[in-house]
């Protein structure tokens, strides 16, 4: 269901479809469109024009991509979209592709442009309304548009891109060689807004209030009067999902918090305080650490860990449903399970246009014989949107702004066999990391900061004796949406405190290391 058409805003307001050509450009474009209060969806480049038109789009944006349009094979789009009358904006690769498909020329210049680049506006365009003649934009291309298609005009140029922007105003088809979605492009957000408001005639209806209202309606329509379970993890995603569903159906909701033994320090107490005592939500606290450690014994493959944890979660929910929820209703009563699945979860778990990076236990880790229908009110939201919705719903600041935590918990931060001893060591080290990051005033500046325990031992010296203990790896990254991330440059004095405290306070650790890998090529989590 598309919130842009049927479940958010004005029913006649269609979404902006962002066609994905890879390398995660599409995700950033989609977020920028939503920041302009217009709903956007990412679609695969393999979708046909008929399939795209079935979504009743207000406009289409062709994203950038890592390929060259002159390579074979290279991703393309159904050329029939250019005859639909729907406004189109091509960005970088997307601009080159529409140029080539409509009869223009794209050549390998041998130079290319990368990074901040001076741009000269050479023609009138609704995209460049009130722009100065010279601005600085962000370029990243090896090929260049060297000839516009019939009926098109060039509207901007740079030193190595003779056609840095082009348009066919009558057909509402536009292209820019630079990246307006990147903050380094001056007036990039303004360009996107001009396309959305002036060309596509969108209305700014995608707001936090409209998201809540639309999802409340959607949840009520989906579950009717049936009882609903919500899987609480202690993280922001499941918390916001629970609060949103509770707003929709009240006492029909029962939250289930499963203590797997793989949670962060003091997680259980915070969940109890927030949902039982503040929101007065029926909460079932299941202490199941022994079952999870038994199921994970000897398992080292991260995908296997996720599958095992996902399936055991569901089995426990089924037990709770039979004992406390569904058993009290009429025979055959349908069961529903709420999960805090986000848009990046869906994308990373694989789609027509993206390889599976890792499965998420709340997407790819569910058993085939799931006895519940899923309720996923956050499935089309990015993390920043989820936090804003959480604040609107009145969730505590500490939960709304809590750093992301993987569904499988510490199991995917222990690289190797998961045991109670290793979980205790990692939990203690992780608590120190979070405490010191907060003390340094960096918690809100970082997307995630946590400890990792590789299940290997290293030689060390403590006092006058030889030690043979675990290393702890500190992982801290900055990001906007987890689709890409950069390793955080933590101050040396902070790193010194972290190392000293972890080694001195956590028994079983004799070495601390820092992970300085960005995403890509690495992922944020180690598994």
Parts with pLDDT < 50 across at least 5 consecutive residues = 1-12, 329-334, 350-364
Query: Strand content of the residues, in percent?
Result: 15-25%
Provide a count of the helices.
15
Largest sheet: 9 strands, mixed
- N-to-C CA distance: 31 Å
Oligomerization state: single chain
As for the number of domains, it is 3
**CATH T-level topology of the largest domain:** Rossmann fold
CATH superfamily of the largest domain: Class I glutamine amidotransferase (GATase) domain
Count the beta strands. 20
Q: Helical percent range?
A: 25-40%
Whole-number average pLDDT? Answer: 87
CATH class wording of the largest domain: Alpha Beta
What order do the strands of the largest sheet run in, or round the barrel if closed?
2-1-3-4-9-8-7-5-6
CATH architecture of the largest domain: 3-Layer(aba) Sandwich
Rg, Å, rounded: 25 Å
Cα shape: globular
Would you tell me the structural class of the helices and strands? alpha/beta
């Amino acid at each position: 269901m598309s919130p842009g058409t049927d479940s958010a805003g004005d029913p006649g307001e269609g979404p902006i479809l962002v066609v994905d050509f890879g390398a995660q450009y599409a995700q950033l474009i989609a977020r920028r469109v939503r920041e302009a209060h217009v709903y956007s969806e990412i679609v695969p480049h393999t979708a046909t024009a008929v399939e795209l038109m079935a979504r009743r789009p207000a406009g289409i944006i062709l994203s950038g991509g890592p390929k060259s349009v002159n390579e074979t094979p290279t991703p393309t789009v159904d050329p029939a979209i250019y005859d639909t009358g729907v406004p189109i904006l091509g960005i970088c690769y997307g601009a080159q592709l529409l140029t080539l498909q409509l009869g223009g020329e794209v050549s390998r210049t041998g130079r290319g442009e990368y990074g901040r680049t001076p741009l000269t506006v050479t023609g009138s365009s609704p995209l460049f309304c009130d722009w100065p003649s010279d601005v600085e934009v962000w370029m990243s291309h090896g090929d260049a548009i060297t000839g516009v298609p019939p009926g098109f005009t060039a509207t901007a140029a740079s030193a190595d891109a003779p056609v840095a922007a082009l348009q066919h105003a009558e057909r509402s088809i536009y292209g820019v060689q630079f990246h307006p979605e990147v903050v380094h492009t001056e007036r990039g957000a303004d360009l996107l807004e001009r396309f959305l408001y002036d060309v596509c005639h969108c209305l700014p209806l995608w707001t936090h209030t409209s998201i809540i209202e639309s999802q409340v309606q959607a949840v009520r329509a989906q579950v009717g009067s049936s009882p609903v379970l919500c899987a609480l993890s202690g993280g922001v995603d499941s918390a916001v999902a629970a609060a949103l569903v509770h707003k929709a159906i009240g006492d029909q909701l029962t939250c289930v918090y499963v203590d797997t033994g793989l949670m962060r320090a003091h997680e259980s107490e915070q969940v109890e305080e927030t949902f039982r005592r503040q929101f007065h939500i029926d909460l079932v606290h299941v202490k199941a650490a022994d079952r999870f450690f038994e199921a994970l014994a000897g398992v080292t493959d991260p995908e296997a860990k996720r599958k095992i944890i996902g399936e055991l979660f569901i089995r426990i929910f089924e037990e709770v449903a039979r004992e406390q929820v569904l058993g009290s209703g009429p025979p055959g009563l349908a069961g529903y399970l709420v999960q805090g699945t986000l848009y990046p979860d869906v994308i990373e778990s694989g789609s027509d246009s993206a390889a599976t990076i890792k499965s998420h236990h709340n997407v790819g880790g569910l058993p085939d014989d799931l006895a519940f229908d899923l309720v996923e009110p956050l499935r089309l939201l990015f993390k920043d949107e989820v936090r804003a919705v959480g604040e609107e719903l009145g969730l505590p600041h500490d939960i709304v702004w809590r750093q992301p935590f993987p569904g499988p918990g510490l199991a995917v931060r222990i690289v190797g066999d998961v045991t109670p001893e290793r979980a205790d060591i990692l939990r203690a080290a992780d608590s120190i990391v979070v405490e010191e990051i907060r003390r340094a005033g960096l918690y809100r500046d970082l997307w995630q900061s946590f400890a990792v325990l590789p299940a290997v031992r290293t030689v060390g010296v403590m006092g006058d004796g030889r030690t043979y203990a675990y290393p702890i790896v500190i992982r801290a990254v900055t990001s906007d949406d987890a689709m890409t991330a950069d390793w955080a440059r933590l101050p040396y004095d902070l790193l010194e405190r972290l190392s000293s405290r972890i080694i001195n306070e956590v028994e079983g650790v004799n070495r601390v290391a820092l992970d300085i890998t960005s995403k890509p090529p690495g992922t944020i989590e180690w598994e």
